[in-house]
Design a protein that fits this description.
single chain, 345 residues, mainly alpha, Cyclin A, domain 1, 4 domains, three-stranded antiparallel β-sheet
Amino acid sequence: MDVSYDGLELESVDEFEPEAVARMFEQFLTASRAPYNLSRSEECAEHPVVEDVEDDDACVHCKMKASVHLEDGNYVCTHCNTVVQRFLDHSAEWRYYGHDDTKTADPARCGPPVNELMPSMGSILTATGQFRGSIGSKMIRKYQMWNAMTYRERSLYSVCDVLAVSATRNGIQPVILEEAKSMYKRISELKISRGENRQAIIASCIYMACKTNGVPRSIKEIAEMFNVRVHCMTKACKTFQDLLNVSVVSSTPIDFVNRFCCKLNATETFSVTCRAVITKACAMELLAEYTPPSAVAGCIMLCSDAMSAGISKKRIAAVCQISVVTISKCYKHIRPFADVLLDGK
């Protein structure tokens, strides 16, 4: 059997000889790729041949550098059309299904991105359109979501809802909320808690996340936020550190100044003065026997009297969540050093 390709005569083979047929097929492939096979002397300047096939920009087949490009979800070599690698996009993906009907509803659906905390959430559908707010649609979504999750993910999902509601009500930033969720998942995998202890563990995750991000809150604040006792909250924080084997840096009075002054609607000048007073008082070791919120409350009271800001002691106590008696003690302790702390203000 005589075969030719593009003017190139191939050897004659017997159709019953497999080895000859294979040899002819190899000649055919060589002839078809001949225009693209470059020798070392004919190497292209724009696409040099590289020896290191592990280069990200080089094709693993033809070894041409800077020839691999992303096309339709695949990394394809523009020189030999080889699919080098497939690309997986983990972001949200929209699909529209309204081309084949005449309905006015938009049946587009979006699959949410992969959630590291709850992997099953990647298979839950979010519907949009005319019937997305109906009772039946909500029930179907809830049923589908509930069945798609494992028992651990259902429990974690309810805890994430509690954290999200508490964070929204109390002005906690989303980055702190996400870190608290991650912390709780790690703790729940190490120890099972129930009742008030479980609620205290959830609160301790918010407490530690706030500390880690440089915006600490007092234990009493977090305990009231989640309606748990301060004793249980303190115990949960100790359990948190033991389980995750972490050591948290103690809070300082300067960490609470901006938030307390903001709640008191104080001016920027007043806030700057309070920070300066607290910094000097800490350097002089005048506030060592007081907790950071108590020290801040006493310094705010001192600055209010010196600058005639008109901030009452009861208002400071309500914002800082410190008793009036404690504020009075701290104020009397630092009052003799007012000239040094205020520096003539």
